[in-house]
Description:
Elements: H1 3-14, H2 18-25, H3 29-36, H4 44-70
Helix pairs in contact: 1-4, 2-4
Amino acid sequence: MDIGSQLRAKRIAAGIAGCTVCVKCQISRSRLSDIERSYVSPTEDEVIRIDKALDDLSRAKSRIAAVAADEGWPSWRG
């Protein structure tokens, strides 16, 4: 599996929208799509930024879910 497919799989498994990743790592949505589909090879910097954005966003989702649970909000699974 190439790096673009790995990044896409990680993003989908985390339930994070592509546009959210793009805002966080400052690349265009079309560029992310091209990387994920292996139409283009990402630079090393892009891979690092995308991977870090996914990690940061996953942690944020976990913290938000924990706060929601502490406040008695129901959990949703998408």
